[in-house]
Amino acid sequence: MPRLFTALEIPRNAAMSLSLLRGGLPGARWIDVENYHITLRFIGDVDGRTADEVVDRLDRIERPEFSLTLNGIGSFGSKKPHSIWAGVSPAPELYALQGEIERICQRIGLPPDPRKFTPHVTLARLKASRVDDVVHYLGGRGDFHTMPFRIGRFVLLSSRESVGGGPYLTEEVFPLQEAGGYSNFASMALQPEESML
Question: Which stretches make up the Phosphoesterase HXTX domain (predicted)?
Answer without folding.
Answer: 8-85, 91-166
